[in-house]
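C-alpha cells in:
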C-alpha cells in the first residue's frame, strides 16, 4: 500500500481538510507499450523496425494488418502507406526515417554526422538492391519479367553484392565503422523477404555478408525476437 492525499470540504465554510487516500499498488492497470508498429503480417519493411525495437529492449505493440483489411485502414494512414510508428498519439510513416530515429534511441547510429553519412550510404545501397529485386518479383508481364531477370541476376545483383561484400570485409563482418550499426540490422532483417522474392539465398558463397548475418543473428535480443515473432511465409 502507498498513501496519497485528497482534499475535501468540511462543514466550516472555506476550510479544506486533507485526508489520506489509500492506493492499492498491486492493482495498478498495466501500462500499454509506448510504441506501436503497424504493418502487414510479413517481414519486409516492417522487420527492420521490429529488429531495432527488439535490440533496444523497447516493448512495442506489434499490430499486423491482413491484406483484406488494408482498403478500410489505408485512408486513416498519414500518407496511405505502411509501416507506421505510433508514439504519444502521433503516427509517423516512412520506414527509413523511422529506422534512423530508432537507431539513435538504441545507440546503433554513428557518433557524428560523418559516421551517420557512412551508415546511411550503405543503407541506401541496400535499399536500392531491395527495390531492384522487388521490381523484378512484382512484374506481372512475363516477357518483361524475363528481361528484368537477366539484368538483375547478371548485372545489378553481382555489381552491388560484390561491393557490399568488400565493405563487409573491410569492416570485419559489419557494414560501417567496424562495429554493429543499424545498417547491419537493416540488411539482415530484410534477407528473409528478399530471399522469398528471389527464390534463392542472396548471400550464398559470400563469406563476409554471411558474417554480417551471423553477427546480427547472434545478438541475444534479436534471437529472442525471432523465436517469439509470428511465423509467416515471407
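Residues out:
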Amino acid at each position: 500500500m502507498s498513501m496519497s492525499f485528497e482534499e475535501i470540504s468540511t462543514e466550516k465554510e472555506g476550510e479544506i481538510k486533507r485526508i489520506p487516500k489509500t492506493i492499492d499498488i498491486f492493482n495498478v492497470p498495466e501500462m500499454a507499450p509506448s510504441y506501436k508498429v503497424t504493418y502487414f503480417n510479413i517481414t519486409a519493411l516492417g522487420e527492420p523496425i521490429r529488429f531495432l525495437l527488439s535490440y533496444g529492449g523497447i516493448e512495442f505493440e506489434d499490430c499486423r494488418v491482413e491484406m483484406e483489411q488494408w482498403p478500410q485502414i489505408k485512408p486513416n494512414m498519414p500518407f496511405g502507406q505502411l509501416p507506421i510508428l505510433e508514439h504519444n498519439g502521433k503516427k509517423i510513416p516512412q520506414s527509413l526515417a523511422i529506422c534512423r530515429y530508432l537507431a539513435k534511441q538504441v545507440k546503433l547510429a554513428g557518433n557524428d554526422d560523418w559516421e551517420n553519412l557512412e551508415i546511411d550510404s550503405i543503407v541506401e545501397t541496400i535499399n536500392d538492391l531491395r527495390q531492384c529485386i522487388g521490381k523484378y518479383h512484382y512484374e506481372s508481364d512475363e516477357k518483361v519479367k524475363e528481361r528484368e531477370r537477366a539484368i538483375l541476376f547478371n548485372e545489378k545483383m553481382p555489381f552491388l553484392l560484390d561491393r557490399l561484400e568488400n565493405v563487409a570485409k573491410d569492416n570485419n563482418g559489419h557494414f560501417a565503422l567496424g562495429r554493429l550499426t543499424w545498417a547491419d540490422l537493416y540488411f539482415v532483417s530484410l534477407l528473409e523477404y528478399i530471399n522469398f522474392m528471389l527464390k534463392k539465398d542472396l548471400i550464398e558463397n559470400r563469406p563476409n555478408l554471411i558474417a554480417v548475418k551471423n553477427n546480427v543473428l547472434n545478438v541475444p535480443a534479436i534471437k529472442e525476437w525471432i523465436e517469439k515473432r509470428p511465423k509467416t511465409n515471407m
